[in-house]
Structures are given as C-alpha cells and as structure tokens.
C-alpha cells in the first residue's frame, strides 16, 4: 500500500509494534524442552491480548499463529511437537492484522551453546537487514536494496536464498509491489514511491541459494542444506529514508 494520511501510519505502527512485541516475548520464553506448539501459543496470546489476529492463519489457513522454523527449516515452519534443543537455530516469523492493517516481521535466534560461525551468521543477518533498510528512500530504485545486500553477502562470504523475496504489505499480508528481490536483480526496474509500505527480509546463509518444499504444504528447507537466517522489518519509504514499523514496546 501507499500511505495516504497520518491515521494510516498510526495504524500501521500499532500493528507493527504488536508483531514485534510477540517476537520479543516468544524469544524471551524460549527454552530447551519446549515444543514449537507451546512457543506458538505464547505468540498467539500476545496477538490476541492486543486485539490482533494471525495473518497467515486468517489469510491462508496456516496451521498456527506464527511460523517457527528450526535448523534445516528456513521458513514457514508449522508449530507442532518438535522440541527445541540446545544448539538449535530458530527462526520466528510473526505477521498479523488489526483494524484492517497488516505488518510482518521475523528474526532468528540461537539456543546456546552454538558454534561461533552460527553466532556470526546471526550477527551478520541483522547487519544484512539494516544494509537493505538503509537503501530505503522514496524516489530511489527498489533494486538498490538487493544490490546492497548482495554486496554485503559477497564481501562476507555468505550466500542469499534467491527465491524468498520481500513484498508489499499494509492492507493485506502480500500485495504490490510483489516479489521484491533482496539479492542483486538486474530485471528489477521499479521505484520506491513516497509512503510505499513493504518488507525487507534477506535470507543470509552459509551456502544455501534456494528454498525447497518438503512433505507438508508449508515448510521450506535450505538447498543446498546449510544454516540460514532471516531478519525482517516492515518499512515505509519516505523522502527522508526508512520508517521502520515493526519495533517493540520497551516494556514488551
């Protein structure tokens, strides 16, 4: 969507904050021995207590309130009986709707102890996200985001998963501009307009370049198999740069 007035921005910031709060509360509650279903219930409660509803559940009948992906799973993991264990790499993706407005955010976490290379991957995944966010400015090409993230990945000897894209969001979970590459894409010719709302969500990996489906209709896996992280914010393009919508309350 393109924001038309201040009221819309206020509503988007509200749902963005709710999504960010849910991730923060889930991450704080996460511990070895917990199932992903138990973790999902915690996220659901944050959403419902805030008057929001899960976007993937509402829009696509996803079997859970949040997406929780562990290790070889890199996106759209279904909450269930899988137990979180020490050494795991866990991605939490929360998207939700309130009052007709949507936001989407995600982050990867470790359950110590993990190898130093995984800690570095998480650190650099956050850096890659902000490299992309810092390219957001109305009047600039959308392709600048993927070009900058790609240069960062190459410099630091990482790969990017090139079929999991960013997307427009705001009045629905997925809308125009669709399929925003967070990797170098010479075919991307679109521009960032004032007030454009979209996600930035690079998938940084120690070797994977593609996401493949598995036995269920949802979960995606790294191909080739390699540790992969995702960090995501919903953002508004303005003439002064990015306005990040998915920031938590200090008290969350």
From TrEMBL:
InterPro entries: Creatinase/aminopeptidase-like, Pept_M24, Pept_M24_MAP, Pept_M24A_MAP1
Domain Peptidase M24, chain residue ranges per copy: 11-238
Keyword Chaperone in record: no
Enzyme class (EC, first level): hydrolase
Keywords: Aminopeptidase, Hydrolase, Metal-binding, Protease
Annotated residues for binding of a divalent metal cation 1: 93, 104, 232
Gene Ontology terms, MF aspect: initiator methionyl aminopeptidase activity; metal ion binding; metalloaminopeptidase activity
Record Pfam families: Peptidase_M24
Source species, domain of life: Bacteria
Gene3D superfamilies: Creatinase/methionine aminopeptidase superfamily (3.90.230.10)
Catalytic reaction annotation: Release of N-terminal amino acids, preferentially methionine, from peptides and arylamides
GO biological process, alphabetically ordered: proteolysis
Residues bound to a divalent metal cation 2: 104, 167, 201, 232
Residues holding substrate: 76, 174
Listed cofactors: Co(2+); Zn(2+); Mn(2+); Fe(2+)
EC id: 3.4.11.18
Family: Belongs to the peptidase M24A family. Methionine aminopeptidase type 1 subfamily.
Task of the protein: Removes the N-terminal methionine from nascent proteins. The N-terminal methionine is often cleaved when the second residue in the primary sequence is small and uncharged (Met-Ala-, Cys, Gly, Pro, Ser, Thr, or Val). Requires deformylation of the N(alpha)-formylated initiator methionine before it can be hydrolyzed.
Quaternary structure, from the entry: Monomer.
Protein name per the record: Methionine aminopeptidase
């Amino acid at each position: 969507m393109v924001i038309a007035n201040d009221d819309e921005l206020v509503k988007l910031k509200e749902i963005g904050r709710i999504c960010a709060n849910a991730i923060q509360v889930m991450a704080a509650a996460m511990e070895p021995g917990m199932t992903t279903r138990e973790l999902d219930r915690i996220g659901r409660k944050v959403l419902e207590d805030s008057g929001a509803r899960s976007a993937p559940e509402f829009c696509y009948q996803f079997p859970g309130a949040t997406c929780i992906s562990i290790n070889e799973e890199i996106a759209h993991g279904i909450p269930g009986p899988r137990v979180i264990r020490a050494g795991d790499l866990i991605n939490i993706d929360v998207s939700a709707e309130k009052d007709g407005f949507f936001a989407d955010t995600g982050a990867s976490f470790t359950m110590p102890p993990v190898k130093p290379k995984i800690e570095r991957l998480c650190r650099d995944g956050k850096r890659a996200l902000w490299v992309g966010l810092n390219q957001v400015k109305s009047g600039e090409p959308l392709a600048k985001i993927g070009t900058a993230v790609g240069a960062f990945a190459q410099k630091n000897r990482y790969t990017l998963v090139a079929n999991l894209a960013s997307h427009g969001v705001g009045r629905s979970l997925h809308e125009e501009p669709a399929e925003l590459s967070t990797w170098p894409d010479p075919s991307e010719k679109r521009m960032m307009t004032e007030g454009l709302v979209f996600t930035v969500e690079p998938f940084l990996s120690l070797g994977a370049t593609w996401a493949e489906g598995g036995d269920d209709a949802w979960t995606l896996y790294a191909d080739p198999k390699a540790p992969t992280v995702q960090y995501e914010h919903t953002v508004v393009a303005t003439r002064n740069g990015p306005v990040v919508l998915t920031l938590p309350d200090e008290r969350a």
